[in-house]
Amino acid sequence: MRDPRTYRWWIVDALMLAMIVVGLDSTVLTVALPTLASDLHASTSALQWILDAYILVLAGLMLPLGALADRIGRKPVLIAGVVIFTLGSLSAAYAASPAWLIATRAVMGIGAAVILTVPLAVLPSIFTPEERPRAIATMMVAMGVGMPLGPIVGGWLLQNYWWGSVFLINAPVGTLAVIALAVLLPNSREHAATGSDPWGAVLSTAGLASLIYGVVEAPGKGWTSTPVLCFSGLGLVLLAAFTAWEFRTAHPLIDLSLLLRPRFGWGTATATIASFAMMGLLFVLPAYLQVVRGHDPLGTGVRLLPMIGGLIVGAKLGEAATVRLGTRIPVVTGLGVIVTGLLWGSTVTVSTGFGSIAGWLALIGLGMGMAMTPAMDAALGEVPAGRYGAGSALTMALRQVGSALGIAVLGSILNAVYTGRLAVTGLPGPLARTARESVSAGAAVARSTGDAALASSAGHAYVQAMTTVMLTSAGVGLLGMVLAATLLPARRAVQTPREESATIPV
């Protein structure tokens, strides 16, 4: 029997291929939305569902699919997930209608739910606790690098090919990942067979999907609108029922008592806070670069490269610091670097030079890499052997909810400040309402009417709104620093057999 530890870094390379595809896909579509609106005649509602169908399925299925991987084997579930994602991407590339594209995005969400949870579950079973931070750092880089690369790749493809090419790029990478995983990945699963938990799967899936749908709709429909209140309320009720059920059933889908362990709970919380800061930045910066500064999608993506460089360096620093110093110091330091970068970024104006922008982008990427590696290592280190899939799924599901909530809150703040600062005096009512929808709409109205004053007002209003968002993100990051410094243990208090690498049947 082959010992997977002898070629464990080849296994990590295979896992990285799968995670890069999902990271890339998470942002590549954003630059294609205007093209989809014209070529597929997609309405604003259809465009929203093209995004939401993926997010809802992804978030809803993380917990049951992570538990399924523990039960029947992580290798077959992961390979199936990559195949589903790849086939969904192929179908999406040739979609002939918005409805077709929405359906294929939902299929891609199934594959993404597997790809975002199972690879992390493989790491504790083939790496020692001392090596695990390095492996996690590598995976975090793979996931993080894909996000800023999305606008670069998407912008180049849209300039040279048709919109379907932004999905077609997933096919060769996905195919290569399937081959590599089939050859290299050992099959690890729970040693003792346990009963299934269909009620837990149903309640968690419906609860997470309902909650996230309510949250993502909030910026557009309003936090007190009937759909938002109904779906958010339903999601909370279902998740409360799920929690109660998990503590009383003999074979729970997820061991929720993990959340009571400080390193798991606060490791997950600080990773979510770091993701909040990253998503806040990626949420506001592309529009600033494209609309306010006039760069095309490709140019916008290229200007995000300093963040990738910072992320790679930060992940290496976080890995080394975790081994030498434990969890708390690199997490607190990383969050502090993120906060510093956000505060620097909040000084941006409509004419700030790219040198300054590159500086704070690199700083935020550096802090992200430093904080995420030890935070995820702390969480995964608390998961019992044989339950890594369920444990990593719980961590990623909570991060998904936190990210969705963060984007919704930041989106509401952005819209409120932009609308309040935009000068539309003298504009006819319909045009004024259109200009208030977004900075892109404001710029379009200014171009169509030849109103230079409106164009200037839209740019300045957006910069003020972006400053508020970045200051809010910095405040959340500062809160994370305090929580990590006071509540996140540096190391496990007692070493247990659970930290030993599990025996893996191949």
Describe this structure in words.
With 506 residues, this protein is mainly alpha-helical. The protein folds into 2 domains: 1-196, Growth Hormone, Chain: A (Up-down Bundle); 258-491, Growth Hormone, Chain: A, CATH 1.20.1250.20. It has 20 helices and no strands. Helix 1 (8-28) runs antiparallel to helix 9, helix 7 (132-160) packs antiparallel against helix 14 and helix 15 (328-345) packs antiparallel against helix 20 (452-487). Mean pLDDT is 83; it is low at 496-506.
* Backbone structural class: mainly alpha
CATH superfamily of the largest domain: MFS general substrate transporter like domains
Q: What would the principal axes of the Cα set say about the shape?
A: globular
User: Distance N terminus to C terminus?
Assistant: 7 Å
Report strand %: under 5%
**What's the mean pLDDT score?**
83
Low-confidence stretches: 496-506
The CATH architecture assignment of the largest domain turns out to be Up-down Bundle
Annotation, overall tally of beta strands: 0
What is Rg?
22 Å
CATH class of the largest domain: Mainly Alpha
Helix content: over 70%
CATH topology of the largest domain: Growth Hormone, Chain: A
How many domain units? 2
